[in-house]
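Final report, closing paragraph on structural work. Over the funding period we assembled a curated collection of sequence-structure pairs, and we close with a single example.
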Amino acid sequence: MTRVLRVFFTTADLIHTRVAASADPFWEMVLSRRRLFEQDTALVLRPWIEQTRPQSGSTMLRPGLVALAGLSPRGPYFPDFMTPAQSAEGFDAGMAAVLDTPPARLSAEINQLAATSEVPSWVRRVADGDREVIASVASSLRAYYEAAIKPMDQQIQSRVDADRQRRGRDLLDGGIDQLLAGFGPTMRWKAPVLEVDYPVRRDLHLNGRGLRLVPSFFCRGLPVALADPDLTPTLVYPIDHDTHWEIAGNKGLADLLGNTRATVLHSVDGGATTTELARRVTTSLASVSRHTAVLREAGLIETQRRGAAVLHTLTPLGESLLSNDNKRSFAPSLLTA
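Its predicted structure, as stored:
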């Protein structure tokens, strides 16, 4: 029998389906540990692995890695309390939710884990509600996050922004059908069911709650869902780390505008706020504002206020200039920042 997760949508679910604005810090922690010791890794992850793996035995990283290995091992199941919905608001909110997990839930989910994975004795103490052990786990996870994940925030968000831009185009061009059909090849939209390649066969009925799709930098291969169908329906999917474009040598727009300003112009393609541009170009808001002002005066971009933010888009002249430059002056390379 084919192993697939079937997600059943109603009309209300289609209305309430969203793509998260950022990666989830707790999902990134869980998934990053799995990537750290893999041999076959994506090119974009190798700099992180080469920097982090030699430190895996350090007092900063090892306790967190041990905690993640014990509470979220590879296998058909790991406890949902390790990836709380509240972590969408940031690491601190997620940690508060983990620490507030009711004892009965801790026990039930760890017992379920023990049915499929070997459970260390200290994990049993977590299941028993041992506050000292739980506090130690929390401290270890925080140290791992601060050392291994937080320094990657800007790069991760840049990739998430690029992914969301693609999803936004799908939604604008073809509505929710094209959005859901665009998550292949591991997902297939056969309205009203989203089929997801998965380690086990299961069905998830959304029942009007919608689906929260969470882009992940460290997720590779198959998407991941929460095990408990009564929790907020969540599907974590891997960002497509495709080749990105960067300016090559001293040609094209780089000669005309300067390297950074030309990169800003490329980053505006598809629309971007000032904050998004700063993330993509890896520079300050003030610097981006100066570059966008020059590009606007030159008639290459236009800017419109959207609430508290401003949205920059290409003018026809900017699109034409960018199109010509892509053909002549840009070469593909894997950006790591």
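Residues 25-151 form one domain. Confidence is low (pLDDT under 50) at residues 243-250, 327-337. We thank the funder for supporting this effort.
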